[in-house]
């Protein structure tokens, strides 16, 4: 099964899960008996767990296929210089897209706050933009890899990245020139100083070995076409 087919299957499964949950919620809301509501809630939990298990198994199969594909590519490029060049190109663009684990020098920012609202989302955005402007090559927040279409948004008192809920403390990792990244953040009047002056604990540490995990979501390239 191709990676594209598996991605489509994962999308369909997510839609089915959401639809099933909505149907169950409407059913529960229409029930007047407290006992029946408890039973319906239990059934909903069981159904969600079943679909999550199917989703996890499909994701595991996708990872196995990716590993097999990597072995096939390595075998094909072993004695062919042109294939080796293509393999390096594939790896390069997978890294740019965030589809591979990466490591390198950089900084780690640790932010602790009890306040989770729109202002929290704003200062996280500002720090991310500061890192990008300083030349960060890869960034993650609480192990959520940021890619080209990643969005940080606030829903009430819930902060989400890549549709996943994240909580304080916020651990931001960035790979790039350590000196430039660190200097951009701790400069006088910078965002780290601003956060600390507003009672939000923020620290920056340099590191020679930052590790950032790959992006595990689905990348939508529906409207993207190559120029030939």
How would you explain this protein's 3D organization?
Helices cover 53% and strands 20% of the residues. It is flat and about 50 Å long. α1 runs antiparallel to α2 and α2 (34-77) packs antiparallel against α3 (81-97). The mean pLDDT is 79. 15% of the residues are buried. It has 228 residues and is of the alpha+beta class. It is built from six helices and eight strands; from the N terminus they run αααβαββββββααβ. The two termini are 27 Å apart. The longest helix has 44 residues, at 34-77. The strands form two sheets. It has a five-stranded antiparallel beta sheet with strand order 3-2-7-1-8. A three-stranded antiparallel beta sheet has the order 4-5-6, with helices on one face.
Shape: flat
Sheet-strand content, in percent, reads 15-25%
Strand order of the largest sheet: 3-2-7-1-8
Q: Report on the biggest sheet.
A: 5 strands, antiparallel
Helix content class? 40-55%
Q: How many beta-strand elements?
A: 8
- Sheet/helix structural class: alpha+beta
**Element-by-element helix/strand order:** HHHEHEEEEEEHHE
Low-confidence runs of at least 5 consecutive residues: none
Number of helices: 6
Rg measurement, Å: 22 Å
Q: Give the end-to-end Cα distance, rounded to a whole number of Å.
A: 27 Å
What is the mean predicted local confidence, pLDDT? 79
């Amino acid at each position: 099964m191709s990676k594209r087919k598996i991605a489509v299957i994962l999308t369909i499964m997510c839609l089915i899960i959401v639809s099933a949950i909505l149907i169950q919620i409407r059913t529960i809301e229409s029930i007047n008996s407290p006992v029946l509501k408890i039973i319906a809630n239990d059934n909903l939990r069981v159904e969600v767990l079943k679909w999550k298990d199917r989703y996890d198994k499909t994701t595991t199969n996708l990872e196995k296929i990716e590993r097999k594909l990597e072995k096939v590519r390595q075998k094909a490029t072993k004695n062919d210089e042109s294939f080796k060049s293509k393999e390096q190109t594939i790896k390069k663009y997978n890294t740019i897209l965030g589809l591979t684990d990466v490591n390198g020098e950089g900084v780690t920012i640790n932010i602790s706050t009890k306040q989770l609202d729109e202002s929290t989302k704003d200062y996280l955005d500002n720090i991310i933009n500061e890192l990008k402007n300083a030349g960060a090559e890869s960034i993650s927040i609480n192990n959520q890899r940021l890619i080209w279409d990643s969005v940080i948004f606030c829903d009430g008192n819930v902060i989400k990245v890549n549709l996943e809920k994240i909580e304080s403390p916020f651990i931001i990792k960035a790979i790039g020139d350590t000196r430039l990244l660190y200097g951009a953040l701790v400069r006088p009047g910078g965002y780290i100083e601003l956060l600390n002056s507003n009672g939000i604990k923020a620290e920056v540490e340099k590191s020679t070995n930052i590790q950032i995990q790959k992006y595990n979501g689905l990348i939508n390239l529906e409207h993207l076409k190559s120029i030939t």
